[in-house]
Input
Amino acid sequence: MAKQPMLKFVKIERDMPEKRDAIVRNKDFREIYAEFADAKATEQSSRCSQCGVPYCQSHCPLHNNIPDWLRLTATGRLQEAYEVSQATNTFPEICGRICPQDRLCEGNCVIEQSGHGTVTIGSVEKYITDTAWENGWVKPAAPAVERKESVGIIGAGPGGLAAADMLRRAGVQVTVYDRYDRSGGLLTYGIPGFKLEKEIVMRRNKQLEDGGVTFVMNCTVGEDMSFEDIRDRHDAVIIATGVYKSRDLKGPGSGARGIVKAIDYLTASNRVANFGDTVEEFTSGELNAEGKNVVVIGGGDTAMDCVRTAIRQGATSVKCLYRRDRANMPGSQREVQNAEEEGVRFEWLTAPKGFKGDPAVSAVIVEKMRLGLPDASGRQSPEVIEGSDYEEPADLVIKALGFSPEELPTLWGCPELEVTRWGTIKAEFTSGRTVLPDVYAVGDIVRGASLVVWAIRDGRDCAEHVLKDFDKMAAIAAE
Ligand code: FAD
Ligand code: SF4
Ligand code: SF4
Output
């Protein structure tokens, strides 16, 4: 009888790929986890109990067929594992690296619930696709037939690129417009290299180009080209512009020099550290933490990326102020642990009241908080502890308080493009159709600041509906 290759979770313990030592990794921008060795990936995949109702899969936004690709990996059938994995995910190696697995697939793995430690789904997913790249199994689109319809996609982030990939594979003529010089959106300029090395993103960009997707870079829609112009050029348009308006801080002194936005800080760092670009504000020291006391304000993933970047730039000290406690922060616990290991100090239950220093900031006036009664969302509201103020020395303050959408209908001179009261584009669930004919929207510009995996899901779903709508139009025209 054949040996049972799976259900090894009782005998084999959960094991993650090796993490580089904090005092080594906090000096460079390379990823912190090593690759699984082949034997380790096989062994870890074999821990899966092949659930009849796999909660991992239902909690993955892409509904990845996780049990199947784990079984194929455990039995050494890696090329088939890759085929299954890429059937539902456009960028599996990216999700494997940066999905908050503890809140999605792994957080819902049944063997985690039974106390054995989750199957390391993300690391296996990354391993499968990295192996596929090494072996030349990842191929650019090669549509069997070329279609005459053309789609313009505004925004080269994961949402736009996932849609571009699906449409191009179906033979559609696809042009992606982006205001940056490199595509990838936040994968390229937001997320730091220590979470996602840029070669991983650039090889995907090249794959799309090789498959026939046209990129028009350094093109800000609404400035270099009008939205109307893009609509005129294409049979359908997908808006995938993400959310970039930084939430701001008020309070005395908040306009001082040295108080900067997280997105500006991270973009400059990504350009300099990962691409070797020259960025004036980095060279001048404005967006460089080297030799500075740095205070980052916020408790989400962007704040975690800022504190860990500041450490790598050689800051004298790095502190993170967050108004709730550790258990109630929005950022991933795994990232907090990584940051602490690398030398970041967290000041829980604190908020900025104002800033000292003129013209340049010299300190943050901090007030202490406690958690009060739950608000409408059910989360406990932070309350100020009167008379608890103290000063935190700072010569660089980074605001990482979240993002909201830019006012696209105004910027694009298109008041008919309907938005919600939060400024996100009103779009039909799943299809992404907006109120404008042949205009669709996906990703953060619809959901508000969200996750890469959700942007991919939206892009894929939308592409499917664009194709259906094209087919419907063709059928009507043929009648
Ligand atoms: P984006 O990735 O924002 O791409 C939008 C693109 O549109 C950009 O390239 C932009 O230049 C372009 N654009 C905008 N306006 C115009 C215009 N007018 N004309 C032309 N082009 C335009 N998610 C995770 O899952 N895991 C993480 O670890 C993670 N870390 C993050 C860290 C940071 C610092 C930030 C800010 C976000 C992080 N996220 C993370 C969230 C994730 O990056 C986003 O949810 C995701 O990138 C959204 O994809 P998108 O395609 O909708 O938009
Ligand atoms: Fe888990 Fe993300 Fe991969 Fe889905 S895409 S299986 S949530 S790592
Ligand atoms: Fe395997 Fe866990 Fe998914 Fe069950 S929930 S199929 S054990 S990965």
User: Anything to note?
Assistant: The pocket of iron/sulfur cluster (ligand 3) is lined by residues 48-51, 54-56, 66-67, 109-111, 119, 121 (CB under 6 Å). The radius of gyration is 23 Å. Residues 325 and 348 are 5 Å apart (CA to CA). The chain has three domains: 22-134, 150-243+405-478, 250-403.
